[in-house]
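User: I've been trying to design a sequence by hand for this structure and keep getting stuck. Would you show me what you'd pick, starting by listing the structure so we're on the same page?

Assistant: Good idea, let's start from the same input. This is the structure you sent:
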């Protein structure tokens, strides 16, 4: 059933006056932590065409992050790369499909995900609301940095062409794509599907589904903390990062999405600073955001911007 969506939806998100100063401080803390990457061949998962490695690196607060790293066995000396970022509850996949398309690919498991939860594990549900009353300790502070450091890892690898790195993901991965493209100028192109973590205050009113309903559950238990929650999430809202994006970017949303409301997709897209941006809307689609059809669009987008094809 079609739903009337306000394409000019006015988000309630407001950027804190010290937004840039806050994230500059986080980045300084991050820079003080040595990456110390480790790359370990995984013979069991390696095939004649694709080499698979387990990767580990340090992130903020000295949390050790795991990732899957795939590269084509036959490749150019310096190869374009894709950073793949995961959904809220998904286990980050081994990105062989991207490697088969001719990219080196890194699939990151930020803190709390399997393989990265030994030092930090708020659980699911709970990640969204863990320490949500303090931006300095809120779960997504470290989670965002873990994703951003994936770019640093890729740039540290001699086989990666550091001038041709793209980032993509859907749902939480779409939200992480937004913040990564905003913070990391090294990103050449970005493709964000049904971005989560964009329009927190809008989403908890527009939908009653999880994960956003975790915030409503939290506020029902702690009604006196509403202002503190509102103040905290403003520092992490993708809409407040969007004006910092300058690379080519595509965004796809489902007009019947009851997880990440399409209104927030429009609000996000309107705030994106890049002059080269395009929004794809899929009527009749929910949180899949037209994935089956849109995958070909994403492939062509990265082929054009990272390989110079088309």
């Amino acid at each position: 059933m079609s739903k009337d969506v306000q394409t000019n939806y006015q988000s309630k998100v407001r950027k804190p006056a010290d937004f840039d100063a806050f994230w500059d401080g986080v980045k300084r803390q991050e820079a003080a932590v040595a990456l110390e990457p480790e790359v370990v061949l995984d013979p069991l998962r390696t095939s004649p065409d694709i080499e698979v490695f387990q990767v580990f690196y340090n992130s903020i607060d000295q949390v050790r992050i795991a990732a899957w790293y795939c590269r084509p066995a036959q490749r150019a000396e310096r190869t374009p790369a894709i950073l793949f970022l995961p959904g809220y509850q998904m286990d980050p996949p081994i990105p062989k499909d991207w490697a088969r398309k001719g990219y080196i690919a890194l699939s990151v498991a930020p803190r709390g995900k399997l393989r990265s939860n030994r030092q930090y594990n708020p659980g699911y549900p709970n990640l969204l609301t863990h320490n949500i009353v303090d931006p300095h300790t809120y779960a997504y502070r470290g989670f965002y940095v873990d994703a951003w450091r994936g770019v640093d890892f890729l740039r540290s690898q001699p086989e990666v062409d550091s001038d041709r790195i793209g980032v993509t993901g859907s749902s939480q991965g779409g939200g992480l794509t937004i913040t990564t493209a905003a913070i990391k100028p090294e990103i050449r192109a970005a493709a964000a599907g049904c971005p989560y973590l964009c329009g927190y205050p809008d989403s908890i009113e527009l939908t009653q589904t999880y994960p956003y309903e975790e915030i409503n559950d939290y506020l029902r238990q702690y009604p006196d903390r509403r202002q503190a929650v509102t103040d905290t999430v403003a520092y992490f809202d993708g809409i407040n990062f969007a004006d910092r994006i300058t690379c080519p970017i595509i965004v796809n949303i489902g007009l019947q999405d009851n997880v990440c409301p399409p209104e927030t997709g429009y609000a996000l897209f309107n705030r994106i600073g890049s002059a080269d941006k395009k929004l794809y809307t899929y009527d009749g689609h929910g949180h899949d955001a037209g994935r089956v059809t849109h995958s070909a669009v994403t492939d062509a987008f990265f082929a054009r911007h990272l390989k110079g094809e088309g």
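That's my pick for every position. To get oriented when you compare it with your attempt: The chain has ten helices and nine strands. The first strand starts at residue 38 and ends at 41.
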